[in-house]
Each structure stands twice: as structure tokens, then as C-alpha cells.
Design goal:
Layout (H helix, E strand, L loop, with lengths): L1 H10 L3 H26 L1 H17 L2 H40 L2 E2 L5 E2 L18 H46 L9 H56 L3 H40 L8 H14 L6 E2 L3 E2 L2 H21 L1
Antiparallel strand pairs: 1-2, 3-4
Helix pairs in contact: 1-2, 2-5, 2-6, 3-6, 4-5, 4-7, 5-6, 5-7, 6-7, 6-8, 6-9, 7-8, 7-9
Membrane topology: Multi-pass membrane protein
Keywords: Cell membrane, Membrane, Olfaction, Receptor, Sensory transduction, Transducer, Transmembrane, Transmembrane helix
Protein name: Odorant receptor
Length: 342
């Protein structure tokens, strides 16, 4: 990050090239902060993983089928995100600099491009083997960055989709509460107690998820908006230069950025939908089959179901598909401003 910043502010004079180089700097900064958050919240992540392990051990076969169905969705989503991110990122760090080839300046100086143009002040990055070492190190740094992106998406998807599975199990528990008319009073009270305890367990798990993901989501929303705008601007610049291969690489990179933002919004929307199903199930239960005493017990279940916890970015914005469309609109708006100003 520091050599690239030095290159932008001390060496490069072209404003369009400076703007292009801000994309990798913003991306590196995002992943640095996200990785710091993951390390800072490692205790909460361990607690969440321990809770998932405990739920799988205690689950019935029917509940494990629900867990598997949600985990399959999470696995597919994260694999697609990792594939697109590594594909687009590695193409950006290998194919683009190799396509540019060596450049000979007016002073007859040969310049070989690096994946991320850098200015090291005290060393000459164009000399061999310094150039080759820096090239390999920058590609490896890119792989580390893409691992952080895939890892944070994977952790968020794992935790949130497990919470969705728990909410679906809660719906089944609520529906089975009044299915049998010959149920004894003691059995009914135990079922009500089990539902209330399970709701509290879900609330604690969701609180833990919020602690882990709130700032990750915020960074992804803000940084993703900036990156979509900058990469879109790079696509337009390469179209003007009729550089087809660079356009393909930037489009692949744009798809990966959009997909990473979409993942967080999508799992947030799934959590909203599952909460709505729980609210509907608790409100439409056949309460008239219960005694007056047991009817009063349902008030707590219905009240807890009507105040769901949602996935939020630092308590400022709700993660949903509506938020995703807002981010897309905002990034396109900033792109239009860049086209007019620069």
C-alpha cells in the first residue's frame, strides 16, 4: 500500500492513472481492516463455531436436513465468490502487466510494469532480480487479499445461514405445538418452554453474529461502492483505448466485486425472510385449541417473533436486496460524476 501511495502522489502526474491506482489501494485497505476485525473478534467466531458444532451434535435427523439445505446454499455462494475473485484478481495482477510489456521512455529508459505500480525511493524496482522478486511478492499479496475476501464472506455466510436454519426449526416447533389435541398439560408446557428457550438461543446467536459481521458489512458496503465506481471507470477508459483483453479482465473483476457485495445482502435478505416466516407462524397458530393459561404463554412467543434481529452494517443500514440495489445505484451515480469531472 505504501509504495503504491508513494507512486501515486510522488511520481505519477496523470490524474486518470492516479484514479485507476486508487482501486488497488482501497481494496488493500478494506481487506486489512476486515482481517483486523476477524482477529479482534476471534473469540466470538469461536463461540459461533462451537454453537454450530453443538447444534449439529444435538440435532435430530429432520433438523440436520434443514442444516444441510442451508449449508449447501452457503457453500455454493462462497465457492462462486472465491472463484470469481481469484480469477479476476489474478488476471489483474498477472495478465494486465504482462500485456503492457516493456515501455521505453523518451530518455531511453526501459520500464517493466509491476502488478501494482510502486515507488520504493531507496531501491530501483526495475533492476533484476529486484523486479522479479517484487512481481512474485505482489502476486502472492494478491492471493492473500483474495483469501481474506473469501474468508470473510464464508464466515458471514456460515453464521447467518445457520441462524436461518435455526429459525426454520423454530417454525416447525411452533407448528407442532397444537397439532395434537390429546396432548397432556405437562407435555404442552414443556413444548412451550422449549420454544421460548430456543428463541432465546437464537437471539443470543444472532447477537454474536452482529458483533462479528457489523463492521465487515460496513466496510464491504462503503468500499464495494467505491470499487464498483472505479472499476467501471477503468472499463470505460480501456474501451476508449480499444484494449479488449484489459476490458475482459476489468469486467471479471467488476463481477467479483459486485458478487461479494451481493452475498452479504443476499444472506441478510434470507435472514429477513426467515424472521418473517417465524412471525407469521407464531401469529397464525391455532391458539384456540389451547387453554386460557397456555394462551397467555403464547404472548411472549408472539412478541419475541415480532421483533426480529437483522443483519446490519454497524447499525446504520440493513443488509437486504434493497440495500444492494441502493449500492448499485450509488456506484453508478459516482461513476457518472467521474466521467463528467475527470
Amino acid at each position: 500500500m505504501i509504495p503504491t501511495l508513494a507512486y501515486v502522489f510522488l511520481k505519477e502526474k496523470n490524474s486518470k492513472v492516479r484514479l485507476k491506482l486508487m482501486g488497488p489501494i482501497i481494496n488493500c485497505s478494506m481487506q486489512f481492516f476486515k482481517y483486523t476485525i476477524i482477529i479482534w473478534r476471534r473469540k466470538e467466531i469461536q463461540e459461533g463455531l462451537h454453537a454450530i458444532r453443538h447444534d449439529w451434535i444435538q440435532a435430530t435427523e429432520e433438523e440436520r436436513l434443514i442444516f444441510r439445505s442451508k449449508m449447501k446454499i452457503g457453500r455454493r455462494v462462497v465457492l462462486i465468490a472465491a472463484f470469481t475473485m481469484y480469477g479476476g484478481g489474478l488476471c489483474y495482477r498477472t495478465i494486465l502487466p504482462l500485456l503492457k510489456g516493456t515501455v521505453i521512455t523518451a530518455d531511453n529508459i526501459t520500464i517493466r510494469p509491476l502488478p501494482c505500480p510502486s515507488y520504493f525511493i531507496i531501491i530501483n524496482e526495475q533492476q533484476s532480480p529486484i523486479y522479479e522478486i517484487l512481481f512474485v511478492l505482489q502476486v502472492m499479496a494478491g492471493m492473500a487479499i483474495y483469501a481474506v475476501i473469501s474468508g470473510t464472506c464464508g464466515i458471514s455466510a456460515l453464521l447467518v445461514l445457520h441462524a436461518c436454519s435455526m429459525l426454520r426449526i423454530l417454525v416447525n416447533k411452533i407448528k407442532k405445538l397444537v397439532n395434537k389435541s390429546d396432548m397432556s398439560e405437562v407435555t404442552l408446557q414443556r413444548k412451550i418452554m422449549d420454544i421460548v428457550e430456543y428463541q432465546m438461543k437464537i437471539k443470543r446467536f444472532l447477537k454474536n453474529i452482529e458483533t462479528v459481521t457489523e463492521y465487515i458489512c460496513l466496510i464491504e458496503m462503503i468500499g464495494g461502492t467505491c470499487l464498483m465506481c472505479l472499476v467501471g471507470y477503468c472499463i470505460l477508459m480501456e474501451l476508449e483505448n480499444t484494449n479488449t483483453m484489459a476490458v475482459v479482465v476489468y469486467i471479471t473483476l467488476q463481477i467479483s466485486i459486485i458478487f461479494c457485495v451481493f452475498i452479504l445482502c443476499y444472506i441478510g435478505q434470507m435472514l429477513v425472510d426467515e424472521n418473517y416466516i417465524v412471525s407469521q407462524a407464531s401469529s397464525t397458530i391455532n391458539w384456540y385449541r389451547l387453554s386460557i393459561k397456555n394462551m397467555r404463554c403464547l404472548i411472549l412467543i408472539i412478541a419475541m417473533s415480532n421483533y426480529p434481529m437483522k443483519l446490519k452494517a454497524a447499525k446504520m443500514m440493513e443488509m437486504s436486496l434493497t440495500t444492494f440495489t441502493d449500492v448499485m445505484k450509488m456506484s453508478m451515480g459516482y461513476l457518472n460524476i467521474l466521467r463528467e469531472v475527470i
